[in-house]
Amino acid sequence: MSKKKAHPSEEMADKDATAVSKEAVMEEHTPGDSTAGGDNGAAEGTPEGAEAPEPEKSTSEIIDELKSEIKAAGERYLRLMAEFDNYKKRTAREYGSLIESANEKLMLELITVRETFELALRHAENGTEYQQLFDGLKLIFNKFDGVLSANGLTPFADVGEAFDPQIHDALMKIPHNEVPEDHIAEIHEKGYRLKERVIKHARVIVSAGTPPSSSSATGGAAEGNATEPKAEGTE
């Protein structure tokens, strides 16, 4: 049985469709076209010179990073605390050693004073010259005072000096004919400074000024003497 012959227009349509499909396949598999298409897509998605965005981290990754940072911070804190503790101990040892050396220097100077004092007492036991004993004690006192002064200790407070409540402690206030008011009339205990720093206040008695009784008594006696003759003349 013979095949039915197709219409000429249908044959042309089939040829055109076959040619179009072949061209499409060739365009898809051409390397230059695919590369150009990829570059155009990258250029459209990312600006020129900009870095591509990093992929977002998951929640577990963020938590792990935070844990690592907290652990590192804790280790740094413990290390700093250990170093600071060692620094405090070292400073305390150095300060204690400094105090001991300073006390040793002072003690060596006081030993000389003690030996002089002991020598004076030994001579006083075998002698009766009290003037020599007094002179020896005075010499020892001056030597002892010189040691204290060389180490920065100086006494203060003198009779007639203005009273200063910052460095003087007033025991009482008494009238005084010679010392002005609010000035030191008597010294009970001297004050002491150690290198310009007051370490012991002076205990003093402060003057209240001239006693009012002396002036009033003088005025009363003068008035009595002036009125007595008038009374005798009247009688």
Could you give the topology of this structure?
Blueprint: H1 8-28, H2 31-45, H3 59-126, H4 130-150, E1 153-156, E2 168-174, E3 184-189, E4 191-194, E5 197-200, E6 202-207, H5 212-234
Parallel strand pairs: 2-6
Antiparallel strand pairs: 1-4, 3-6, 4-5
Helix pairs in contact: 3-4
Helix/strand/pairing class, anyone?
Answer: alpha+beta
Computed Rg? 56 Å
* Mean pLDDT over all positions: 76
The termini sit apart by 200 Å
Order of helices and strands: HHHHEEEEEEH
Taking the sheet with the most strands, its summary is: 3 strands, antiparallel
Tertiary shape: elongated
The beta-strand count equals 6
- Fraction in helix: 55-70%
Strand order of the largest sheet: 1-4-5
Beta-strand proportion: 5-15%
Residue stretches low in confidence (pLDDT < 50, at least 5 long) are: 1-6, 31-43, 226-235
- Tally of alpha and pi helices: 5
What does this structure look like?
The protein is α+β, with helices and mostly antiparallel strands. Among the domains are: 80-151; 154-213, Head domain of nucleotide exchange factor GrpE (Nucleotide Exchange Factor Grpe, Chain A, domain 2), CATH 2.30.22. The chain is built from 5 helices and 6 strands, in the order ααααββββββα. It has helices at 8-28, 31-45, 59-126, 130-150, 212-234; strands at residues 153-156, 168-174, 184-189, 191-194, 197-200, 202-207. It has a 3-stranded antiparallel beta sheet with strand order 1-4-5. It has a 3-stranded mixed beta sheet with strand order 2-6-3, with no helix packed on it. Helix 3 runs antiparallel to helix 4. It starts with 7 loop residues before the first helix and ends with a helix.
